[in-house]
Design goal:
Helix content: 40-55%
Shape: globular
Radius of gyration: 29 Å
Strand content: 5-15%
Distance between the termini: 62 Å
Number of helices: 33
Strand order of the largest sheet: 4-3-7-17-16
Structural class: alpha+beta
Length: about 675
């Protein structure tokens, strides 16, 4: 039932299908940038070509014959609800079946997870939540068999069977880390919680088995073949010579020596220390606590990533459970569950990670819904049934809570008509039309948000993408757009093309290029970086020799995010800041007087220095000479008005898209013109 409800919620978007979803060449357009990273990898275009996720998509494509984009579009509706399955099994094991639906629905359809796994939102989130939940459930059941009464059963299973369970968990963890390598920090927190819990609640002999079991999990998960063999060996000893473990448990000195040897094996073969250091780096990076060295004056490009931005407490409560009331009830229920089922402590890191989204970003809210689901499902059921004796009332309460949650969750979906696409359909169609018109090894210069999209549709490499959100990628790209000189853009692109070193990525059919600016940004002082970028136009153009084709993409999508691009493109490395150019985007055509050169903004007439007017008859640029310094771009077909200052208006970002292409033909060849939506230029060398 929980799986069905979670899947149904992901189909709500189809109510507004004509307005929200688009097709290109008869195939679905996806809704998240990262989805195209895996599609391009599955198509053997980019550096993710050999990743397990890309391989998974490629396998499904080969097995079914369906288009990659169509597969990725529907997979979230199929895979995301599976989060409820391990919790359903746990509910059956605990004999709390009436709480299973609430627990599963909260885990699989909490707003923070639901909005990231709707139709078209294919990404590693599908694996990032399922595997931790499955591992927590397995650990919970395993620990309950090791705990002393009254916390557990302390079942007298043979040592071999006791250690075989962790070996299976280790293999599942290995698959988890293959599909979601960033999950090592989460896995480490879960195992550490399980270890502390086991040491506090297990019997004397059981503590040794808990430690050995967790060591087996780590060895099997990340110790390679040697680690897996070591874990299997420890398990085999439990089957063949179980008395050895009993003897160790009764001889403290030898027990300590054995634990030291096991710990040394774990650190030697598994690389668990890299889990710890990697976890600390990720937390520092997302939380903004990382100490910065010489690059302290470089722009923090990660701040432009929406999912990495801080969110407020109210938003956290809503994303985790739908609101503070359900969150509070869920926490109370979880506390009650811990009293009766202490093994459920292993889920605590997921709740803490959800709350840490205050600093780590909204993506991490998806973990908190699992624990609130445990509280509302199993915790409250336990209170009503076991402590109050209200079994039927408990079922009614579950239904009411579930109804409230579904209303809170479904209403925003019903009212959401925003197009579900990474870029405007016109941009995607243009990129798709470029496929086959370029030579192998060509490189596209497009803002990093759309890098993966260009890789998949144009089947070409890009200078930057969502996996390279660093200053050495974003700043050169932003300078091309922010500059008012096409000649500067030519010199910068030509320098990159000349200095870039191609390399082959395993499984990929196209070459990738190393960043030509990386050594400058990493090795030089900020003032030297500034001097180099400012003087790049004075460098001689490459001598006539074969260079990879370089394409520059301009689109209306870029204009909409012009403030962020212009800020990075005008970054002053000496001061550590960029220009905050005034920029107003109005989703309507403001009243304007073409003859007089005025536009009415908030009931006040503003004199324009210049105007670009887009109508069904074409693009017209007008100069009025007013000293206001206010320029406007008005698109009567899209119903959009953009007000900006001269720096933005004269930039390549605006002029290469909306200006006369003849003004730039000395530098670029216009290969695709669909202005005002998109233009693609080829660099002339």
């Amino acid at each position: 039932m929980a799986v069905f409800v979670c899947a149904a919620l992901r189909l709500v978007d189809l109510i507004h299908a004509p307005e929200k979803f688009f097709l290109v060449d008869g195939h679905r357009v996806l809704a998240t940038h990262d989805a195209y990273a895996w599609l391009a990898g599955a198509d053997r275009v980019n550096y993710k070509s050999c990743s397990p996720v890309a391989g998974f998509l490629r396998f499904l494509h080969t097995a079914t014959g369906f288009n990659l984009a169509d597969i990725a579009f529907w997979l979230p509706m199929i895979m995301a609800p599976l989060v409820a399955v391990p919790l359903a099994w746990l509910g059956a094991r605990w004999r709390l079946p009436e709480g299973t639906v609430a627990a599963g629905v909260l885990a699989g359809a909490a707003p923070g997870f639901l909005w990231r796994t709707r139709l078209g939102y294919f990404d590693t989130d599908l694996f990032a939540l399922f595997f931790p939940v499955l591992i927590c459930v397995l650990l919970c059941c395993w620990l309950e068999g090791r705990m002393r009464p009254p916390w557990g059963s302390d079942r007298r299973l043979t040592h071999g069977w006791t250690l075989l369970w962790p070996l299976g968990m280790g293999l599942i963890s290995k698959l988890y880390l293959l599909l979601y390598p960033q999950g090592s920090a989460i896995l480490l927190a879960i195992l550490a919680t399980a270890g502390i819990l086991g040491l506090l609640t297990a019997s004397r002999g059981g503590r040794l088995l808990v430690i050995l079991g967790l060591a087996i999990v780590v060895l099997a998960a990340s110790g390679g073949w040697i680690g897996l063999a070591s874990g299997a060996g420890l398990c085999l000893v439990g089957f063949l010579k179980p008395r050895y473990y009993d003897w160790l448990a009764s001889h403290p000195l030898f027990l300590v020596l054995a634990l030291l040897v096991t710990g040394a094996a774990v650190f030697t073969f598994s690389g668990v220390e890299s889990w710890v250091s990697g976890a600390l780096r990720k937390v520092a990076r997302y939380g903004g606590w990382a100490a910065r060295g010489p690059d302290v004056l470089h722009p923090a490009v990660l701040d432009t990533v929406v999912e990495a931005k801080d969110i407020d407490l109210r938003s956290v409560f809503h994303a985790i459970s739908g609101g503070w009331l359900l969150f509070g009830l869920g926490v109370c229920g979880y506390a009650a569950l811990l009293w009766r089922r202490p093994a459920a402590w292993v889920f605590l890191p997921l709740l803490l990670l959800g709350l840490a989204s205050l600093r780590l970003g909204e993506r991490f809210t998806m973990y908190g819904g699992v624990v609130i689901g445990l509280g509302l499902g199993f915790g409250l059921t336990q209170i009503l049934r076991r402590w109050l004796g209200w079994r039927r009332v408990g079922f009614v309460c579950q239904v009411l809570l579930l109804a409230v949650f579904l209303v809170v969750t479904a209403v925003p979906l019903l009212g959401n008509k925003a197009p579900m696409t990474t870029a405007a359909p016109e941009t995607i169609e243009a990129l798709n039309d470029m496929r086959g018109k370029i030579t192998p090894g060509a490189q596209f210069w497009i803002w990093w948000d759309y890098g993966y999209t260009a890789q998949y549709y144009a089947r070409a490499g890009t200078f930057s993408d969502g996996g390279h959100v660093r200053a050495e990628y974003a700043v050169p790209l932003a300078r091309i757009y922010a500059s008012d000189s096409p000649a500067y853009a030519v010199h910068l692109m030509a320098y990159a093309a000349q200095k870039a070193r191609p390399y082959r990525v395993r499984c990929a059919e196209l070459p990738s290029y190393r960043n030509s600016f990386a050594w400058i940004f990493r090795k030089k002082a900020p003032s030297e970086v500034q001097s180099f970028l400012d003087g790049i136009a004075d460098l001689p153009l490459p001598e006539k020799k074969p260079l990879p084709e370089q394409y520059l993409v301009l689109s209306w999508d870029h204009v909409k995010i012009a403030p962020a691009i212009l800020r990075l493109g005008t970054w002053d490395f000496s001061a550590g800041e960029g220009e905050q150019a005034p920029f107003e985007l109005h989703q309507e055509v403001l009243e304007f007087n073409k003859v007089a050169g005025t536009v009415t903004v908030r009931n006040q007439a503003v004199w324009l220095s210049g105007l670009t007017l887009v109508t069904e008859n074409g693009i017209e640029q007008l100069d009025y000479g007013a000293t206001s310094g206010v320029f406007a771009v008005i698109d009567t077909q899209k119903g959009i008005t953009v007000l900006m200052q001269e720096r933005a208006y004269r930039s390549n970002l605006v002029q290469l898209l909306l200006g006369d292409p003849a003004d730039f033909e000395l530098y670029f060849e216009l290969v695709l013109n669909r202005a005002p939506d998109v233009r693609v230029y080829k660099l002339k060398l």
